[in-house]
Design brief:
The protein is α/β, with parallel strands linked by helices and 216 residues long. The protein has nine helices and eight strands.
């Protein structure tokens, strides 16, 4: 396969954002008198966008307060986008190596579009060619293929010339829905078992470099 691009998920794939997300969720829950959630609970809740994250974090009796808690979460998270969030080990080197080899990169994430672009600029400056985040009303979220196809179009690359890389069941489904080969990243927010349908599973970022260089 002549790889011309890799489309990456963001949270749990390129960056470990869990602590900042958890802190912001729990600040919002506390503000409205709800019990805090553990890191492991919040890890299981992420992946389908901030609205689903808050719906899952709220108890059943708290769904009536969803809009207010969601708004509070957005405010807290805006102030904590990059406090504890960092790229995973080897990610910066991976992105640099891909650029050296002439392979384009995109991020397609269910994170708010503005937040995703801010984080990429702050933590991975100049290393991502295209970023497509969630923008309600303008495009669908993953696992719908629409945002991935949009990113590929912006890169000028066909789905047959690109890999999709992610860490969750949402990412596996996204790749399948888009008709792309999938690289499962085992260091993220999910157990390795959810990646079994991926074409390839990598355990560290440098393994992806080896994979590309071997011509897979």
């Amino acid at each position: 396969m002549n790889v011309k691009a890799i489309v990456f998920d963001m949270d749990g794939t390129l960056i470990n954002s869990l602590e900042d997300i958890a802190y912001s969720v729990n600040c919002a829950l506390t503000e409205f008198g709800y019990n805090n959630r553990s890191i492991d609970e919040i890890k299981a809740f992420v992946g389908n966008g901030a609205d689903m994250l808050i719906r899952r974090a709220l108890p059943s009796e708290g769904q009536k307060d969803f809009e207010a808690v969601f708004s509070a979460y957005r405010g807290y998270y805006k102030q904590n986008l990059c406090v504890r969030t960092r790229p995973y080990e080897g990610i910066e080197e991976l992105l640099d190596r891909l650029r050296e080899k002439g392979i384009s990169t995109a991020v397609v994430t269910n994170k708010n579009d503005d937040d995703a672009k801010y984080i990429a600029k702050k933590l991975l400056p100049g290393k991502i060619d295209v970023i497509v985040g969630a923008d309600p009303g303008k495009r669908n979220k993953k696992p719908d293929p629409q945002p991935v196809l949009m990113a590929l179009d912006m890169l000028g690359v066909s789905k047959e010339e690109a890999y999709y890389a992610g860490d969750s069941e949402t990412d596996v489904q996204t790749a399948e829905n888009t008709g792309m080969k999938c690289i499962g990243c085992s260091w993220g927010f999910r157990e390795r078992a959810v990646l079994e349908k991926c074409d390839i599973i990598v355990d560290k970022a440098e393994d992806m470099i080896s994979l590309i260089e071997s011509g897979h």
